[in-house]
């Protein structure tokens, strides 16, 4: 499904050389006006059902006597909670007042119990969309993975598998200690308070209303992490270990999804919007599994970089409209790929090229 346009291919690895395509950008802007409204009748049932199915699966996995039932329930829990957690991406783009109460409900049901409250993504992800930041050293969500050493890819996934351990340490240990050790508190805020992949990224102190949101979300995650640490004293080790296995598996899938969300070929210079699009990835239908490993519209990640304000439930319609409107030579088709594993292979092969 990939379009190998010779102009696009020759610019691979030199993304800054790709000029903006006015026709594609104009068509995308028109769709933004048409599809920009978030529908509460879709958001609320989707998020609530995903969370409830996830926790039901988690409870069944913990209580099951059968290994087969426990594994099957754990798989259901992982996939459903992964979908529920993916709404954190939508929270960063939803216009203020569009979905009253949704942020609060998501944090109480998903963000705090998974120790990924929305403050860890809000104010971070929008920098990834900044025109002059994307793909540069100031982008918290970008690393030139395709230009790095081959061992960087497995390390990228292994680190993700340790996420629940890191989150427990962050909230059950570092948060309480930070209250009495101000320098530690600053370090935690700067280096361990963002869902980012750029290790050089440093977060600024929150201000205003966001500071108040940060406070109660962090306090809730801290209390939950402390309960997790204490849970073996009252419930034994099984619930905690199953929770961590589900959480780890969920994070690994998300990291794989992140790995193929971009081609990671930029060398640090600012890029045009079209170049940013072509460094990003759509996995549209008929790919049968993309809706599972890239839920809540994440299968249209390249399109999302053109239409960041369009809600997830409208991205499929927007994609179909652009495919029907733009001609065969449009750069838009160069952002469409067939599935996860061909993309993993493409990035892995790129890391093996001597530079």
Automatic annotation (TrEMBL):
Protein name: Fatty acid desaturase
Coiled-coil annotated residue ranges, if any: none
One cellular component (GO) term of this entry: membrane
Regions that span the bilayer: 52-81, 102-121, 153-181, 221-246
The species this protein was found in: Sphingobium vermicomposti
GO molecular function terms noted in the UniProt entry: oxidoreductase activity, acting on paired donors, with oxidation of a pair of donors resulting in the reduction of molecular oxygen to two molecules of water
Entry keywords, A to Z: Membrane, Transmembrane, Transmembrane helix
CDD domains (alphabetical): Membrane-FADS-like
Start and end residues of each Fatty acid desaturase domain: 69-331
Domain of life: Bacteria
Keyword Cell inner membrane among record annotations: no
GO biological process: lipid biosynthetic process
Keyword Transmembrane helix carried by entry: yes
């Amino acid at each position: 499904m990939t379009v190998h346009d010779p102009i696009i291919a020759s610019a691979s690895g030199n993304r800054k050389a790709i000029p903006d395509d006015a026709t594609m950008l104009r068509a995308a802007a028109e769709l933004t006006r048409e599809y920009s409204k978030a529908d509460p009748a879709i958001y609320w049932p989707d998020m609530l059902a995903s969370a409830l199915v996830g926790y039901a699966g988690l409870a069944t996995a913990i209580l099951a006597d059968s290994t087969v039932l426990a594994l099957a329930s754990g798989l259901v829990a992982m996939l459903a909670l992964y979908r529920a957690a993916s709404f954190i991406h939508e929270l960063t783009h939803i216009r203020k007042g569009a979905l009253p109460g949704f942020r609060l409900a998501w944090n109480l049901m998903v963000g705090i119990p998974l120790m990924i409250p929305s403050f860890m993504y809000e104010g971070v992800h929008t920098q990834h969309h900044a025109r002059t930041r994307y793909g540069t050293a100031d982008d918290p969500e970008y690393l030139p993975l395709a230009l790095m050493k081959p061992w960087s890819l497995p390390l990228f996934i292994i680190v993700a598998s340790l996420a629940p351990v890191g989150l427990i340490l962050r909230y059950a240990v570092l948060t309480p200690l930070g209250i009495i050790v101000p320098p530690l508190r600053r370090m935690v805020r700067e280096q361990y308070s963002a869902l980012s992949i750029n290790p050089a990224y440093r977060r600024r102190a929150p201000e205003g209303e966001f500071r108040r949101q940060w406070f109660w979300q962090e306090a809730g995650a801290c209390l939950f992490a402390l309960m997790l640490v204490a849970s073996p004293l009252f419930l034994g080790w099984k619930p905690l270990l199953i929770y961590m296995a589900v959480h780890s598996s969920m994070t690994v899938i998300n990291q794989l999804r992140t790995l193929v969300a971009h081609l990671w070929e930029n060398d640090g210079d600012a890029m045009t919007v079209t170049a940013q699009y072509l460094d990003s990835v759509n996995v549209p239908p008929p790919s049968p599994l993309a809706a599972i490993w890239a839920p809540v519209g994440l299968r249209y990640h390249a399109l999302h970089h053109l239409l960041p304000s369009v809600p997830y439930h409208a991205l499929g319609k927007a994609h179909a409209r652009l495919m029907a409107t733009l001609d065969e030579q449009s750069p838009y088709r160069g952002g469409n790929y067939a599935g996860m594993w061909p993309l993993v292979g493409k990035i892995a092969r790129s890391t093996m090229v001597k530079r």
